[in-house]
Amino acid sequence: MHISVMGELDSKAEADRLLECIHESGRYEIHITFLDANIVTRDIVERIMKMQEDNRCKVFVLKAYLYSYFLSLGIKCFLVKKKSLLNKTYQSNEKLNCQDFEPEQVEDFLRDIYDKYGYDFTEYRKDSIIRRIKISMLRYCMTCFEEFRERVLNDQDVFEQLFLDFSINTTNFFRDPEVFTFLKESVLLRLDSYSHIKIWSVGCSNGKEPYSLAMILKELGILHKVQIYATDINPYVIEEAKNGLYSISTIDDDIDNYKKAGGAKDFTDYFDITCNYMKIKDELKENILFFQHSVIEKGILNEFQMILCRNLMIYFDIVLQKKVLRHFYNSLDDGGFLIMGKSEGMLLNNGYEHFVDYNEKHKVFRRKNLSFINHESPYNGKG
Ligand SMILES: C[S@@+](CC[C@H](N)C(=O)[O-])C[C@H]1O[C@@H](n2cnc3c(N)ncnc32)[C@H](O)[C@@H]1O
């Protein structure tokens, strides 16, 4: 039996329909081809995994993103390349160098992308964007920027790959563990006096950051009164985060980070572990709301006591950093905490107009309130 899956499978009804088809196949060998999906739900992953254990399921995918996701979880699959994405003239031993292009060409291109696809990268740092464009061009063996630009603007698949190249999703459980120790020992204890705590993890990638936070909150005994909003511009990492399935290949580093962060339990207690992957337990998912959202969008999501925006601002130019910091100022409670990444800060972007240092080393800042602006700050001590 062969099932071809068209579209993104982004509704429960579509996912259920696929599961039904699989069920109907009975004990026959089944071949599934995912034509457009970049990600699939946890039920589907687990079902395929089960069938592969019984040697009765072959999987073919056309999207590189889904291919890497499946491989990371131990699902055997074949990547089928769309003919339209191959450059026929390329010889594999040819050394490719992109032609140089001007920053103005890139600015026009980013505006066109915004007009056509609705994603706004116009105020991202140009050096990083240019690097990513070159990586994407070489992926298609293209050296001419104008040709690539046309391709992106006329082919959704090519744009999608560029979008994935722009959204760099590197993350870890307890990334920079000493920051989590500091949150646990200082910041979160201060928030304990609230009856309800709202935290926003901005640019949460595949969920490892908000899940790490949920583990600490659980160990402090306050997870039940916390709502974590976890958002990212990239819809596929959000689905990955909701799935909560992770490769076990990095488990030693994860355990190490957890211990360095002062974890009080056994890291693996938070997962159901199979031989290929680990599945986050539902008790950690209940207080996290994952959804796609770009931090550049106007409009306040809620009033938070703490915002984590780590390793994202480095991709923004100074003008955008200022706007986003202003946005965080408006989204935080008086004295609310903002946590940034190790190599980020408040110096060049006038952040100190709105925030004061709480702990410089760990990049923890506090929102100024009106009395901060007009008088001496009562919170100017380092944490
Ligand atoms: C390098 S990862 C950082 C992940 C995590 N915060 C950490 O520090 O481990 C940056 C994330 O920001 C996301 N991102 C990029 N632009 C964004 C935007 N405008 N709004 C929200 N998320 C964005 C990317 O998709 C990516 O997942």
TrEMBL record:
Q: Quote the PANTHER family the UniProt record gives.
A: CHEMOTAXIS PROTEIN, CHEMOTAXIS PROTEIN METHYLTRANSFERASE
Residue ranges occupied by any CheR-type methyltransferase domain in the UniProt entry: 104-355
Q: Which InterPro entries match?
A: Bact_Chemotaxis_MeTrfase, CheR_C, CheR_MeTrfase, CheR_N, SAM-dependent_MTases_sf
Q: State the UniProt keywords alphabetically.
A: Methyltransferase, Transferase
Protein name stated in the entry: Protein-glutamate O-methyltransferase CheR
Task: Show the Gene3D superfamilies listed in the entry.
Answer: Vaccinia Virus protein VP39
Q: Name one GO molecular function term.
A: S-adenosylmethionine-dependent methyltransferase activity
